[in-house]
Design goal:
Two copies of one chain form a homodimer.
Chain A: H1 2-6, H2 15-20, H3 41-50, H4 53-57, H5 60-74, E1 78-80, H6 87-91, E2 96-98, E3 104-106, H7 122-134, E4 140-146, H8 148-157, H9 165-173, H10 175-198, E5 203-207, H11 216-237, E6 243-246, H12 254-261, E7 265-268, H13 274-281, E8 286-291, H14 293-298, H15 300-314, E9 319-323, H16 333-344
Parallel strand pairs in A: 1-4, 4-5, 5-6, 6-7, 7-8, 8-9
Antiparallel strand pairs in A: 2-3
Helix pairs in contact in A: 3-5, 5-7, 8-9, 8-10, 9-10, 10-11, 15-16
């Protein structure tokens, strides 16, 4: 019976988690940022059923289904919980809406009034539970949150405009108020990630999509320090849960981020050369990412060559194959199928 | 008389040019990207007189005046010709317009039909001549052009949307056609820069604002290779004219760009740590830039500290003080005055 127990779900190893622990697994595990989404016909059908985008996020059954769709179709090694980074500001009391075909719009921000109500996020954690129950044990459920800086960008700007000038100015001119916002967010992000882990997430990813907007001094203050606190707090509250930090656009600051935050995995954007990242970050941290979503969207020989190039660099190191940014909505699903096939056929 | 000749305009040295030749001048010379523009009341007045933005670009007297305004107000060491990168696609036959308060809109692109008509750009070179005649000899006139990749982004996308997905996809899916476009642009950019030099520009800057969108393999092909060709061609046609390459967002690829293109100066964006850039690029290339435009816009202690930090790093090396991106339109001119004062008070 002892032997049988070792073969139950809890004891089956997951390549994603092994990689995040620094191991070089025979297969290179993979998942894709925004693997659930509009490029999939089955997602578009689900979305019609759900109504608005946020309705889908807050419907546990439908969110779980959206999460599982790409896992079924492409046999990815991880499911990333279908949700949005802006559910957190919403649960802290700021208004958030998505107009059809447009980006998010956020209501007025009152930093002093922000308070996280975890109850509002219960549907998100319920979705995680449903996903974990439905996944085969070899597959990892990845929870996630926007990082404090990136959340603050949307919360102050009121929208996503790519340059976030209002936020960058506010962070310098009103440093004390901005620091209070970041502190509140750091706590809220931690709580949100802990709940996802309790609901079944085996690893979590911290999306700092706008980290690249900051010069070094501010990057250290608003990107690195909060990430470091979150990693340390998770280590206490949910020991053994790896954190993947994704400071998109960090450029030459990637190695500093990796060294200082204590993340188990680092998401590498498409623009950062993978070989350089590995050289500068040492062999113990697991790297993830790097494929240009434009190349996945284009497909063909360009895709095959780029995948071969990435796999060649990643051969002898802990690595999770992924994109350097989310899947584009015009990506033909067949190109993702082709990618999955290439990855499945590769052995170290 | 020989002595007198040595003191005429042609023989007065310019700190910007000396720095680009690798010298460490007692003063750190400075100018700012987009130093002529909407944040200046005198510019707004001029703009009202001119009509549309492109009308201003094509009016030699008014364009020269716009160029000179910040030099007068802040005593910058260089004037950058007031113009726009999109005058080049326009002179090649593509329709370009600027709707008030909006970004540029470009007409349909027919790569085969593109042909540079330098005659259309005569007002730009006339403006350069007027500026050079009005500048004191110690000051440098900097000519510029968008780099082929960045121009191609606007030309294919038809607008500036920050992500340029259509262009990135086209460059992969239709590589041969895209290569023809880049080749045509490389020639046109070269011709445009040569004419500016002949009209009085002492140095030229190549703006590759969207270089950061490309992964390494494509960065080498569409950013580095064209820059290398342009630098080599200028070396033949207008020997001794330094080229400042500004591959914004190049991140970890900056050192490769510097080593391969042969640029005399490299524009460093705000996000790239200056000390790292210097360490990785060696002491012979002149670096330029780095101040976050958000910090200039914010002013106050943050500005003073950041300027001190940059000057400290730049102390013993060829360096031109500048921003890491253009001046924001809400920047109070007094903050630029304060910056100018700080720089004037600094001696190596």
């Amino acid at each position: 019976m002892a032997l049988a127990i070792r073969h139950t779900a809890q004891h089956v190893s997951q390549d994603v988690l092994l990689s995040l622990e620094g191991m070089v697994t025979p297969k290179v595990p993979f998942w894709l940022m925004r693997q659930a989404g509009r490029y999939l016909p089955e997602y578009r059908a689900l979305r019609e059923k759900a109504g608005g985008f946020l309705d889908l996020c807050y419907n546990p059954e439908l969110a779980a289904e959206a999460t599982l769709q790409p896992v079924r179709r492409f046999d990815t090694d991880a499911a990333i919980l279908f949700s949005d980074i802006l559910v957190l500001p919403q649960a802290m009391g700021q208004e958030v809406s998505f107009a059809p075909g447009e980006g998010p719009r956020l209501g007025a921000l009152d930093i002093a009034q922000l308070e996280l109500n975890l109850e509002k996020l219960k549907p998100v954690y319920d979705a995680a539970r449903l996903v974990r129950a439905a996944l085969v044990p070899q597959k990892t459920l990845i929870g996630f949150s926007g990082a404090p800086w990136t959340l603050a960008c949307y919360m102050i700007e009121g929208e996503g405009n790519g340059s976030f000038e209002k936020t960058r100015l506010f962070a310098i001119r009103n440093e004390a108020a901005f620091a209070r916002l970041i502190d509140k967010l750091t706590e809220a992000v931690t709580a949100h990630l802990v709940e996802q882990v309790k609901a079944g997430a085996g690893a979590v990813q911290l999306f700092d999509s706008w980290a690249g907007l900051l010069p070094k001094t501010l990057f250290m203050k608003w990107v690195m320090e909060p990430a470091k606190k979150i990693v340390a707090e998770l280590r206490k509250q949910v020991p053994g849960t790896p954190v993947i930090g994704f400071p998109r656009g960090a450029g030459a600051l990637y190695p500093l981020y990796a060294a200082e935050t204590g993340c188990s995995g680092i998401g590498i954007d498409s623009q950062t050369p993978l070989a350089w990242a590995r050289r500068e970050m040492g062999a113990d941290v697991c790297l993830q990412g790097n494929l240009d979503p434009a190349i996945l969207c284009a497909g063909g020989t360009a895709l095959e060559m780029e995948v071969a190039r990435i796999l060649d660099i990643a051969r002898g190191q802990p690595f999770i194959f992924n994109l350097g940014h989310g899947v584009w909505k015009d990506t033909p699903p067949e190109h993702v199928e082709r990618l999955a096939l290439l990855l499945r056929g590769f052995r170290r």
